[in-house]
């Protein structure tokens, strides 16, 4: 399947507040792309347009060559989404959350994949625990593992490590980078430069506009990127 994520001439406003105006974005193929921007830059709005939770006032959102309006379950199953807020059922165990999701997607014979993912993300020992009893890092990992259960070729995460301590953030970032190396088209939304690696594609978003695009190295690494922002101290934490 084609995994390109394309927004074409998108306008989007919340009531009178315009967030995106004639906004275009193209993320092609596999690998790891960081969509980087300060608070209020429009990252979550872009995420919600890609996920289909929001619809543009005008313009097009195309994922894998399919217009967001024309998606079927097959297209949706090819996209994994990890939202900023908790979407787990906290009363269910880790495995029950996986089973419930498998049911929603009509997945058969998912157990082997579920076990492999839980092991890969260090959640196997917690498989019988209620999601409510997991720490923050394990909850985020479960969100990622569950999103990966239908074996999507695209994985989009909205500030997935928000509120976690640096060591756990780094571990989760490494695990998701490993998925990208396995061929998943990963889009990682963040305002934290230390989650980005040298060869990652970076899209710098500022006030609803793409300010720069290139690999982390091409943009001059953390220092180069910081220098491109106007109010850098407020905008990016290192
Ligand atoms: N439901 C809403 N109603 C009105 N304005 C909103 C709404 N959601 C977001 N906004 C505004 O739209 C702008 C873009 O918000 P968005 O959440 O997309 O940015 P962001 O880059 O994801 O920021 P953050 O890192 O804080 O999540 C901000 O000015 C925000 O205040």
List keywords for this structure.
single chain, about 240 residues, alpha/beta, four-stranded antiparallel beta sheet, 8 helices, about 30% helix, globular, binds adenosine-5'-triphosphate, ABC_transporter_ATP-binding, ATP binding, nodulation, transport, AAA+_ATPase
The global form is: globular
Report the sheet-strand fraction.
25-35%
Query: Count of helical segments?
Result: 8
Termini separation (Å)?
Answer: 36 Å
Unique ligands: adenosine-5'-triphosphate
Model description:
- The protein is an alpha/beta fold and 238 residues long.
- The protein has a domain at 79-151.
- It is 32% helix and 27% strand.
- It has eight helices and ten strands.
- The protein has a six-stranded mixed β-sheet with strand order 6-7-8-3-9-10, sandwiched between helices.
- Helix 5 runs parallel beside helix 6.
- It starts with a strand and ends with a helix.
- The mean pLDDT is 92.
- The structure holds adenosine-5'-triphosphate (ATP).
- Residues 14, 17, 19, 37, 39-45, 191 line the site of adenosine-5'-triphosphate.
Care to give the gist of this entry?
This protein is α/β, with parallel strands linked by helices and 238 residues long. Helix content is 32%, strand content 27%. The chain contains 8 helices and 10 strands.
């Amino acid at each position: 399947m084609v995994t390109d994520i394309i927004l074409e001439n998108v306008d989007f406003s919340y009531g009178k507040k315009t967030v995106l105006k004639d906004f275009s974005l193209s993320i092609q193929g596999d690998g790891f792309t960081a969509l980087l921007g300060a608070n209020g830059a429009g990252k979550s709005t872009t995420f919600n347009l890609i996920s289909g939770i929001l619809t543009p006032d005008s313009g097009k959102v195309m994922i894998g060559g399919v217009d967001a309006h024309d998606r079927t379950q097959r297209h949706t199953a090819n996209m994994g989404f990890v939202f900023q807020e908790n979407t787990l059922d906290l009363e269910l165990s880790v495995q029950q959350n996986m089973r419930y999701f498998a049911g929603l997607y009509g997945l058969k014979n998912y157990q082997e994949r579920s076990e492999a993912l839980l092991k890969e993300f260090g959640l196997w020992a917690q498989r019988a625990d209620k999601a409510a009893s997991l720490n923050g890092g394990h909850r985020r990992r479960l969100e990622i593992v569950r999103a990966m259960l239908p074996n999507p070729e695209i994985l989009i995460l909205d500030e997935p490590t928000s509120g976690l301590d640096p060591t756990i953030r780094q571990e989760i970032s490494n695990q998701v980078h490993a998925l990208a190396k396995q061929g998943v088209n990963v889009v990682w939304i963040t305002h934290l430069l230390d989650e980005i690696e040298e060869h990652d594609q970076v899209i710098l978003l500022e006030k609803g506009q793409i300010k720069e695009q290139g690999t982390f190295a091409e943009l001059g690494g953390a220092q180069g990127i910081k220098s491109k922002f106007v109010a850098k101290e407020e905008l990016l934490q290192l």
